[in-house]
Amino acid sequence: MKYLKLFCFAALVVLANPAVQARDLGEGAVNDSPSRALRNSDNFYEIWSGVGRLSLQSGETCSAVLLDTRNRQGRATGPAYLLTSGHCVFFRYGSARTDLPLNASVTFHYFHDVPQRKRQYPIRIALWSSLVGTDLAVLEIDATLASLIQAGVNPLKLASHLTYENQDVLNVGAPGGFTEAGLRLSACAERIAGTFIDHPGVFPLAMKNSCDLHAGSSGSPMLNRLTNEITGIVSKVAISRNHPAQSDCEHSTSCQAARFNYSYSASFLYACFIDGVFTLAAPNCSLEPVELTVTEPWKLKSHVYKTQNANGQVVLPKWDFRFSLKAPFYRYKMVRNARDCQVPTFYSPAISTENAYINSEIGPQSGAYALCIIGVASADSKLTRGALNNVFTSAVNMSTTPGTLPEMASQ
Questions:
Q1: 160 vs 267: CA distance, rounded Å
Q2: Phi, psi at residue 334, to the nearest 5°?
Q3: Could you tell me which residues come within 8 angstroms of residue 132 by beta carbon, excluding any fewer than 6 positions away?
Q4: Quick check: bond before 364 cis, omega within 30?
Q5: Cα(220)–Cα(86) distance, rounded to whole angstroms?
Q6: CA distance 327 to 380
Q7: The pTM is what?
Q8: pLDDT value for 2
Q9: Do the Cβ atoms of 200 and 162 come closer than 8 Å?
Q10: Is 85 exposed, middle or buried (0-12, 13-18, 19+ CB in 10 A)?
Q11: Are 272 and 279 in contact (CB under 8 A)?
Q12: N or C: which end of the chain has fewer CB within 10 A?
């Protein structure tokens, strides 16, 4: 009994003492503080040796991260895979491609103080790259995961599920523009961006943060501060984070949106790896090619308004959305929360993509609305998880045109 009491007391001490809990990988870094270069001469940051600099044939660079795809027995049996931003690979809004040739390379151990340890590997192929509701790409390196691990390159695990709660995160990336050319660490909080984001090129399923990121950070991982798991991949870096806010910025959604970085969760890709091999046709993966072209992109509006006709009736705006799609049919729906685009219920029956045009009303309540569009192969095709992973999303914010409606009607 005496020993049991001592054990219980020791357990309580462990639980109460933060010093013996999980290591803070940010080492006390304050959220939104300036990024810092990582010095690895003492091997302290080997856990991030798998975050690399992606060099493209165009001369541009992005960041990328080596995925830990070891099987349940901890064995690396397959190829080595990189996760990065889709726009770094193939930049066409509304397109997802598979098996794309890619002339590029990745440099691991990218620490500025130990340049002799850097290791460069060619990219074999881009297995999947998407700008359809997300901004992600999976690349295969011309090497096995086992050989990279043996060379001291440490892969990082994907978070197995997406959390919609605010969480403290770290960013480790390889931006340019610094005399210390290497990986940099930044700390911040990450949260859901919301359905409506008044920032061009950002989809409604994005996360947002205010880490100190720079050009070249696209493709870098956002990491759980305690577990080191990948919570998302950076897509767009803030335009004006380090500039003083305009006096009227708090009243402008565009101004506010431009002060954040945006990233996308990659947790759904967890189901695409079978025994260490990226498998497009896995039951809950099926990342198919998508080719959606907005026919009249100049007509896309971020804000729409309710008005009132001569008879005093409320007139709701319409989507007025013309597009083409390589699939013969499509299904669509309108939702208030963009996350519901990946829920299979309430989609329309299949509609022919010939002269595709969505002009249904938006509303009636004020606020954000997302349009969800999925291409399907036939009129009776069911929406699989794979199809829902390839949903195209667009969003608007609806309000009342000032002075046209009584205040009551805009609620």
A1: 5
A2: -115, 135
A3: 94, 95, 96, 290, 292, 390, 391, 392
A4: yes
A5: 12
A6: 13
A7: 0.88
A8: 41
A9: no
A10: buried
A11: yes
A12: N
Long-range contacts of 226-229 (CB under 8 A, 24+ apart): 226/22, 226/23, 226/24, 226/25, 227/22, 227/159, 228/25, 228/47, 228/156, 228/157, 229/156, 229/157, 229/158, 229/159, 229/160
Chain centroid, CA 305 distance in Å: 30
Say what the pLDDT of residue 93 is.
87
CA dihedral 79, 80, 84, 87 (to 10 degrees): -40
Segments of the chain scoring below 70 in pLDDT: 1-22, 240-248, 250-251, 402-411
pLDDT > 70: percent of the chain: 89
- Alpha-carbon distance of 323 to 50, in angstroms, equals 40
CA pair distance 63, 83, nearest whole angstrom: 9
CA-to-CA distance for 25 and 348, rounded, in angstroms? 46
End-to-end CA distance of the chain: 65
Can you read off the two tokens belonging to residue 163? 């959390």
Q: Quote the pLDDT of residue 408.
A: 39
d(CA 411, CA 361): 17
CA distances from 120 to 104, 105, 141, 177, 322 (A): 10, 7, 10, 20, 45
pLDDT in tens, 50-69: 999 999 999 999 999 999 99
185-208 b/e (C-beta count within 10 Å ≥ 16 → b): bbbbebbbbebbbbbeebbbbbbb
Q: Are the beta carbons of 186 and 171 closer than 8 angstroms?
A: yes
- Residues, the chain: 411
Closest by CA to 336, choosing from 363, 370, 364, is 370
Tokens of 69: 């795809």
Among 267, 192, 204, smallest CA distance to 230 is for 267
What are the contacts of 119-123 at 24+ separation with CB within 8 A? Answer: 119/151, 119/153, 121/80, 121/148, 123/54, 123/82
Query: Which pLDDT value is given to residue 389?
Result: 85
Distance between CA atoms of residues 410 and 208, nearest Å: 28
- For residue 11, give every residue at least 6 positions away whose Cβ sits within 8 Å of its Cβ, in sequence order, or none: none
Structural contact between residues 238 and 223, judged by C-beta atoms closer than 8 angstroms: no
